[in-house]
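Subject: Sanity check before I submit

Could someone independently write out the structure tokens for this chain? I want to compare against mine line by line before I put it in a report. The sequence has 182 residues.
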Amino acid sequence: MKDKLIELIIKEGCIKFGHFILTSGKESNYYIDIKKLITNPEALKIIARLIKEKAEELGLEYDKVAGPELGAVPIATALSLETNKPLLIIRKKKKEHGTGKIIEGEVREGDRVLLVEDVTTTGGSVIRAAKILREHGANVVGIFVVVDREEGARENIEKEGFSLHPLVLVSELFEAAGVSKA
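---
Independent answer below. Compare away.
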């Protein structure tokens, strides 16, 4: 199933070449456009199944699934449907009206949460989301990402006491596409 995901990422044209500024602020000569992929229901089903299976293989027990807005929300929703676990959405910033929430969905002290992300470079946005969950009493049992760009996310995430579980490494994508990363 991982091979099918890699094939879909390439077939959907999710690897773009040129000059890009990433969320992390880094410059790159390629961009992984997973948002293009996660609008494909077949791809979302595969991603959710792969995350569920990998979490089971690792023996991770969790009560809820979470994702930071925007790219991770469809992934977290698909996983919620696949596992029948409640969904949490971590906002980029607190709502300035209504309840003023930073997390949509109910977080209780001690909740075990599986956090998902679309792409990681340095891990900054997913670390922020994990810390928000922790501040609200949740225990982040694992962070799953569709594609890890292999640019420090794992090390930064582990430094914060969390574990990263990528479905696909960018080096695997480049190998499958027959392209050199350099």
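---
OP: Matches mine. For the report I'm noting this point. Residues 50 and 71 are 17 Å apart (CA to CA).
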